[in-house]
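User: Structure please.
Assistant: Input sequence and predicted structure:
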Amino acid sequence: MSIEFIIAIISAIVLVATPILLAGLGELVVEKSGVLNLGVEGMMLIGAVTGFAVTSLSGNPYLGVLAAACTGAAASMIFGFLTLTLSANQVATGLALTIFGGGFSALAGKAFLGKTVPAFTQLFPTGLATDPIWKVIFGYSPIVYFSLAMCVATAWFLKRSRAGLILRAVGENDLSAHSIGYSVIGVRYAAVAFGGAMAGIAGSMFSLVLTPIWAEGLTAGRGWIALALVVFAAWKPYRLLVGAYIFGAVMTLEVHAKAAGGLFSALPSELWAALPYLATLIVLVIISMRRGSRSGAPACLGKPFIPTA
């Protein structure tokens, strides 16, 4: 293999892994607060269509990403109101949000079918961003660098900041946190909004960077992969980063298998397309096998908060 081919594979892995990482980081914070939101896929689809629509109408992809984050957060507030204020079942509400997101994106995206949007401007000088070697570091969309910065920021927030300590306390023992004066519902609303915004940005990555032309179902189940990775990573941001890039590598195999030749090209393309979801099943099996041990799950995950006083 040539160095150019290897760099092309690395670049593809980074791009494919970025939306999974973004959605996973948002869900990780949500679950750390004790809330289980299975609507990640739906919020990603809402963010994807919103980001594409705003970018198409304004010509500014940065404005599109901001709009995607806002609509993702707004969609998450529907989930938050139903589960945190009305104490609805979190699993059922999350699934309903995913179904709603799929229908909303299909309906809202009809006017944009087949249209394209302008690309992001390069963050780094063109000489570095397009160089055959250096583009492996400097040639990505701004959303890629944002995802890496958010991974570091999320890890610092959860481990080092006072607000992160409060969020973890709410997720581990909501009654104790409430008894010493913290607003459990308020903290969880903030976490859910953050998770929705991150899912919205992850969705915009699909419609603005990976496939900058609108089509239904762009996320193709990546929200479910992000959910599985959060558990597999034991709710740790850096493990989530590694897991996202591993899944990105698995997904990239399908694209580059034919070009590699040999045994890879002999296998059917359908097998390569199924690999990410097969890997997700393997992850879930591993999770179930270690359920008896301390997995790192927040103690109050998925449980409604009912204050005693």
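The CA atoms of residues 222 and 262 lie 29 Å apart.
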